[in-house]
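USER: Note each token:
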Amino acid sequence: MRKISAWAVLSLIVLLLAACSQPAPTPTTEPAGVEPTAAPAAPGDAYPDPATDAYPAPSANSTAYPAPEAAPTTPVSNEPVVVPEPSSDQVGVVTGIILRITDGGEQEPFTSGVLYLGPVLAADTGDEVMVAVDKNAAPQSVFNAFGEFIFVDVPPGRYGLMLDLVQGTVLLNDPTGANNGDLIIEVTGGDTIDLGELAYPLP
């Protein structure tokens, strides 16, 4: 009887040892409350290429961004300037002709751009130092086909003649060289000032 019991105990120990030597089973589900994690992506597909039609390149004939239209130009008048009398003794009239000197030395009527009369500014000492122009308020004029211009109803004062071109605004001097080359226009009420022909090597 003791031999049988010893054998049974020995068999039980062997079974327990065999059971302990087996690896623990791997759980097939995530613990409760934990989201399953995705398997890591392979190195080749970590950053997938964008769709080929996500941002199509503009075609050669694309009209998405059309070029701006050229600004309309005011037709140049073929009518000669008719110089009126000042409308009152509180304002004056200024007229003249601008000519362009060509590369060949010839003179032709200048017909583009806008002319302004800019007031001459003086320093505290009384010395005239510069000509300024406010294009929204200054007297202005355009040219006809003969290069003629006219300013009417000009308030009395001392002015410089300024030409506004695409390249910028320039102060015109006296092409004869008089008065150290400065072209100062003194407007008095009730008077008409004719500057005559002024020729410059304009673009």
